[in-house]
Design a protein that fits this description.
By secondary structure, the chain is of the alpha/beta class. The protein folds into three domains: 162 residues, P-loop containing nucleotide triphosphate hydrolases (Rossmann fold, 3-Layer(aba) Sandwich), CATH 3.40.50; 181 residues, no CATH class; 75 residues, 3-Layer(aba) Sandwich (Trna Endonuclease, Chain: A, domain 1). It contains 19 helices and eleven strands. The strands form three sheets. Strands 2-3-4-1-5 form a five-stranded parallel β-sheet. Strands 8-9-10-11 form a four-stranded mixed β-sheet, sandwiched between helices. Strands 6-7 form a two-stranded antiparallel ribbon. The longest helix is centred in the last third of the chain and has 31 residues. It is globular. The two termini are 23 Å apart.
Length: 439
């Protein structure tokens, strides 16, 4: 798949590279696995003197051997002797960068926590000592949120405050997914677009797998995902086990409960059998996997809260792959396929609401957006979008099939909401229905 989008991110990285010609720069690029961090950095530094170090889980001397070879090939500088430590190599490069400018990409830096944690304090020492004379553009990227937090964001972290910039790479926006489909499957349908959004969540690696395999219809996407050697089946568990460590089973149970609709604190704790506040907070703040959703206009202290799996790929994974892992274990993938096809309309109907939320945010012209439901759950409004400057509010119902949109009922729901909340006085009310025909 060709390189798509990322114009703003490329511009930012190129600005940083220009600054490094005069003063050393230290940019951190993070984001969930498979989102395209490495490809972005290589794209931003192509045709420039650049070293690329990938920190794999191997003994430090063997890593240094790989890195020495990279230095020799890319900078044409032989290194005499057998370097055994990354700290020694980093110090050499910091000293070298006082006489010449180059980019140093260190991919999956957090792996040194498993290999040699002292690397970070050594990097801190050499960066602090030599950065004033250096012209290095240091680009560090990593995926494991908890580990990156330990290295850079905790006040006591060894490299806290050293970075000169921070870039969090996000999945592709809905407009980019549409562009990709237009170019690679011009006859795509709304069902195909919704499937690409639901299955990939805009994560670059999954989009690339679909494009490179010519799987850009709903049916072909399922064919690619639901087979024995599918990375979609293995990826979800392997990534999160690494993130969560030994407590992964508790986290998985929470995510599974939310994915099947048990999305309130009480229902989640009933499913898990224990208090889950700490786990939920970490998944929300450290990992970005969950979001806490309150009814629009509700007070911040309300207990009328629902939790949502933010990442579309993981929402699908826990709704179908993890839930039915016993079917996968006995090789009955055809049966799993039938279950997905049976329940997909309900699952994708919820995803469609998120699609339109993302679409409205991307289009701009709104200052506040959310959903509404009362404590009984009987009065729900799918989406409310406000422009508080122009005093306009869109009250929106979302259905897969536009024939199921009932404007009279939507107005009744809105009237009940306004009577209860007392909000939106003086606003122009616009009642809208969105369906797959509006994607």
């Amino acid at each position: 798949m060709k390189f798509y989008n990322r114009e703003n991110e490329l511009k930012r990285l190129q600005e940083v590279q220009a600054l490094s010609l005069e003063n050393a720069q230290f940019m951190i690029v993070t984001g969930r696995r498979r989102v395209g961090k490495t490809r972005l950095l290589l794209r931003a530094t192509e045709n420039q003197p650049t070293l690329y170090f990938f920190v794999s889980r191997k003994a430090e001397p063997f890593l240094c051997e790989d890195f020495q070879q990279e230095i020799t090939e890319k900078l044409q500088i032989p290194i005499l002797g057998n370097v055994q430590s990354f700290s020694q190599l980093f110090r050499f490069l910091m000293q070298l960068s006082t006489t010449r400018s180059f980019n140093l990409i260190v991919d999956e830096l957090q792996e040194f926590l498993n290999i040699n944690p002292s690397v970070f304090s050594d990097m801190q020492r050499d960066w602090d000592t030599l950065k004033e004379q250096s012209r290095m553009n240091l680009l560090v990227c990593g995926s494991v949120h908890s580990m990156m937090h330990k290295i850079f964001e905790d006040y006591s972290a060894p490299l806290y405050g050293r970075a000169t910039g921070f870039l969090r790479l996000k999945p592709f926006k809905v407009s980019v997914l549409k562009d990709i489909l237009k170019e690679n499957n011009p006859q795509y349908t709304a069902e195909d677009l919704l499937a690409l959004y639901a299955f990939s969540g805009g994560v670059a690696k999954y989009v690339q797998l679909f494009v490179d395999n010519g799987a850009l219809t709903f049916k072909k996407m399922l064919d690619l995902m639901i087979k024995e050697d599918s990375s979609f089946i293995a990826d979800g568990k392997s990534m999160l086990v690494e993130e969560f460590g030994k407590d992964y089973a508790v986290y998985f149970t929470i995510l599974s409960a939310i994915a099947r609709g048990e999305n309130t604190r009480g229902k989640i704790e009933a499913a898990v059998g224990k208090e889950v506040g700490g786990y939920i907070t970490r998944m929300e703040n450290d990992y970005g996997l969950l979001s806490k959703s309150r009814p629009l206009f509700a007070k911040s202290e309300t207990k009328n809260v629902r939790y949502v799996v933010e990442d579309n790929f993981f929402a699908f994974f826990f709704r179908f792959i993890y839930k039915y892992s016993h079917i996968i274990e006995i090789g009955q993938l055809g049966e799993l396929r039938k279950i997905i096809e049976r329940d997909y309309a309900t699952f994708s109907g919820k995803v469609l609401g998120k699609y339109f939320r993302d679409k409205l945010i991307e289009q701009g012209g709104i200052t506040r957006i959310g959903s509404y439901w009362d404590k009984t759950g009987e009065n729900e409004i799918d989406l409310i979008a406000l422009n508080e400057t122009e005093k306009v509010v869109q009250i929106i119902e979302i259905k897969r099939n536009e024939a199921h949109i009932r404007y009279s009922l939507l107005k009744e729901k809105a009237a009940a909401m306004l009577a209860k909340t007392g909000e939106l006085k003086g606003y122009e009310m616009q009642y809208k229905g969105f369906s797959m025909a509006d994607m």
